[in-house]
Amino acid sequence: MDAKHPLETPGSPATLPTGGGELNRRQVMVFTLSAVTIGLSCLFLLGEVALRLAGRHPSYLDREMYVATGDERGYSLRPGYVGYYAGVPVRVGPLGLRGEAAVQGLLLLGDSALFGQGLNQEQTLSAQFQRRIPALPTTNAGVPGYNTVAELSQLRVLLPRLSPRKVVLVYVVDNDADLRSGVWLRDDGTLDLHVNETLAGGVSRFFTRHLVLYSQLRGLWSIRQQALSAEDRTPFTPDDPGWRRSQGALLAMRDLLRERGIPFGVGGIGLVQNLQAITTVELFCKEQGIPYATLWQTQDVGDFVRRRAVGRTDSHAGAATTGQMADALVTLVSRLQ
Fold it and tell me: pLDDT tens digit string along 113-142?
């Protein structure tokens, strides 16, 4: 009788012939998985090294940069903070502001677009404006997530300390017109960065904070998931309750500064949300005697993210686009007398 191949022997484990004996199927699977794991780990390591050599840093939003204030702002930048935020170095001064605080200069109020999320200090709107008009010292009072009400409170805090000659509110409709809370404040006044507190969430935060490639891949995945699950936003309407609160804050800014003889203007940005909000804001400012200029708007969000944003994982304006905003801001500031 012919001897059967080991693979064909009834009741025996499947085996493969080797030079020095036989490996069963489980061993082959373990060997294959180990080889694949090692290969992927090597690729990940090479990618991490390449990104770091290129000067990249993990892109995460560091909650240590924020501190609760106990006033209408709710929170501010932590004075003295030095670290990386959204992949770039950030230094916060003693007044809780990014960059230098200038007395008797131009005070810029706003949110993450003004703060310069994902931009180095010299690329921010305030820094690029300063290079265009060196004679007018400029203060960046932007804080990610702020809306018009928080910006009004920021103005009240900074006004007696900086005595600005001119003030401009950088009005981003995504935060200002509907007054979404951004970062970020619980009902008890404590900060909430919407952090996943599970073990898996903690492990993911650790890798995001320390590994460039992981933070990039996680950002791409998050953007992809948001795109898949995104729902149409409620169209902006002039009777929106958030917009009514925003109007009240705008008028309070105007009146507060008018009493002190300080010129005030608004620069609008529409990157994502309903662009008709920009038109509504412009008309309102004109009716109320507030100088206004649109610094930037886009109707193609996908094109903006691909060509003009900080990166595929962050839809904030890149350095070149921010430079164009700075040009428009120069025109607006020149009108403030």
Answer: 999 999 999 999 999 999 999 999 999 999
Tell me which residue of 220, 241, 244, 238 sits closest to 313, measured CA to CA.
Answer: 220
Q: How far apart are CA 224 and CA 46, in angstroms?
A: 25
Environment class of 59 (CB within 10 Å of its CB; exposed 0-12, middle 13-18, buried 19+):
buried
Sheet with 264-270, side-by-side order of all strands: 138-142, 106-110, 166-172, 264-270, 292-297
Residue appearing with tokens 């990618």: 47
Q: How far lies 161's CA from each of 67, 105, 139, 157, 261, in Å?
A: 20, 12, 12, 8, 16
Cα–chain-centroid distance for residue 260?
A: 34
Helix (H) or strand (E) holding 281: helix 276-287
Query: Does residue 211 contact residue 48 with C-beta atoms inside 8 Å?
Result: yes
Residue 118: CA count within 13 A, CB half-sphere: 20
How many helices and strands, by DSSP H and E, does the chain display?
Answer: 11, 13
Question: Both tokens of residue 79?
Answer: 């004075």
